[in-house]
Design brief:
By secondary structure, this protein is an alpha+beta fold. The protein has helices at residues 8-17, 19-31, 42-56, 130-145, 166-175, 222-225, 232-241, 264-271, 277-284, 297-303, 343-356, 383-395, 410-419, 444-460; strands spanning 62-66, 76-81, 89-95, 115-117, 120-122, 152-158, 183-186, 198-203, 205-214, 220-221, 306-314, 324-325, 328-337, 363-373, 376-377, 401-405, 422-427, 441-443. The longest helix has 17 residues, at 444-460.
């Protein structure tokens, strides 16, 4: 059938009429502890993927669970539903894996038992990305049940986005001819700080690795060996400090090679969506003074590459004192890459710096290397952005803003290349959702916004 134009009220009415069923399904999905990076949760990932397959089949999707021949066999769900002849082809991407729940003792509710408090659902994965992609799928379901004409829709749901998308990357050569599409829809991003809808016009790439220093063959007495044995805990601190200049910029030679700076127009659009330092401090708990001194927030948060220390470990950390020189220490680091930075070149530059600055008497190892994928920026005057802007203006009369996201969804770059689709990243996350942290949550108003977005953009793409 061809109905009258869909408006925002369509999804709202559907949600209220089906609230109990929607929340029951949403909570069932959340209860699967799908930590895709942990082999102990392979069974949970498989169960979640199978459940999603059963969720999609009644909507007319042909569904297939795929696993790679190498690496962790975390399933990738591929589904396809034919649309109206001559319509666009949409590839929708999301991920059902979640971050580990650690530290568990900081959760106010059980991490994998969804709890509804003041119209917010608290649980690991409530937002990232189960809440985001599942609310979109429920918007799609509303359209299907209403008998609306739709574009051809292909769906890819993976279980390793949080740990590098190894399974889906291994399967891409096999999937390439099947995922060809006109538009790539991704629901894994944030709205603007003032909650205006945001169209993501670019994202930074990411790479990560671990640096380990080893000194003595075992922990040794700090009285007997102090002043003699090299201390890896001190060495790792000095090694990390060597990577930064006094103004906070990265001191690694070659780190900034090849960077494509933003245009004046991109910076102007990006500035529209930034918030002031006081608001940032209120939401995050510290002032926005990281990165290179003197650069505006929008440059540091969106258009500049970063090198961050994600954790440092070495020696004794328990109660009281244990006077030792530790045998080893390590740090986990991550890099956010901007367009035209080569991941391989950046990693080699960092590796060369670390090797040349390794403290005397210690052995350096670089482990758990994920070289990563580059960042990307999209043309802000593309037709698909105009289509999205018109749809989002129905959600918020202020209209959408363009955001160059500082975070990363590395597989999006690959999906863009392989599918030939124009990426369209729109999500409804907020800072208060606490993704990757204890007490993650997602508001039912955000869930409904995502449903409305799904109904509007899918009808616009018929």
């Amino acid at each position: 059938m061809v109905s009258s134009e869909i408006d925002t009220g369509f999804a709202g009415v559907y949600f209220e009429r089906n609230r109990e069923r929607i929340l029951a399904d949403y909570f069932t999905l959340i209860r699967f502890p799908t930590v895709g990076a942990d082999s102990k949760h392979l069974g949970d990932c498989a169960k979640a993927a199978a459940w999603l397959k059963q969720f999609l089949k009644p909507m007319g999707f042909s569904c297939e669970l795929l696993t790679p021949a190498t690496g962790l066999p975390v399933p990738v769900l591929f589904a396809e539903r034919p649309g109206r002849p001559g319509s666009s082809t949409v590839l929708f991407y999301g991920h059902y894996d979640v971050q580990p729940e650690d530290p568990v003792d900081e959760w106010k509710t059980p991490p994998f038992e969804p709890t509804l408090i003041d119209n917010r659902v608290y649980a690991r994965g409530a937002q990232d990305d189960k809440g985001q992609f599942f609310s979109f799928l429920y918007g799609l379901r509303a359209l299907v049940e209403a008998g609306e004409d739709l574009p051809t829709i292909k769906i890819l749901l993976e279980g390793q986005e949080e740990s590098g998308s190894g399974a889906i990357a291994a399967l891409l050569p096999e999937l390439a001819p099947r995922i060809a599409a006109d538009v790539l829809l991704v629901a894994d991003t944030h709205s603007a700080p003032d909650f205006r809808p945001a169209i993501i016009a670019g994202m930074r790439g990411v790479q990560h690795f671990m640096v380990k220093l080893t000194g003595p063959s075992k922990d040794v007495h700090s009285g007997m060996h102090g002043g003699l044995a090299p201390n890896p805990a001190l060495g790792i601190a000095r090694l990390l400090a060597s990577m930064f200049n006094p103004d906070g910029s990265v001191a690694v030679e070659g780190f900034r090679d090849g960077i494509a700076p933003p245009t004046e127009e991109e910076v102007r659009y990006a500035t529209e969506s930034t918030f002031d330092p006081e608001q940032y401090e209120k939401e995050v708990g510290c002032p926005p003074v990281g990165g290179t001194e003197g650069l505006p927030m929008v440059m540091r948060g969106s258009f500049e590459p970063t090198l961050e220390v994600n954790g440092i470990h070495g020696g004794y950390g328990g109660p009281g004192s244990k006077t030792v020189i530790p045998s080893s220490a390590f740090a986990k680091l991550s890099v956010r890459l901007v367009p035209d930075q080569s991941p391989a070149h950046v990693f080699n530059a960092i590796k060369a710096h670390l090797e040349s600055h390794c403290p005397k008497g210690m052995k350096l190892e670089i482990l758990e290397v994920f070289e990563g994928l580059p960042g990307f920026r999209l043309p802000i005057h593309s037709p698909v952005f105009r289509l999205a802007a018109d749809a989002l203006a129905k959600l918020d009369q202020r209209g959408p803003v363009f955001v160059w996201e500082g975070a990363s969804i590395p597989i999006v770059s690959r999906l863009k290349q392989v599918s030939g689709a124009a990426p369209l990243l729109v999500g409804f996350g907020r800072e208060c959702d606490n993704i990757h942290s204890p007490n993650e949550s997602f508001g039912l108003d955000q869930f409904l916004d995502s449903m409305m977005w799904a109904t509007l953009i899918l009808k616009a793409l018929v």
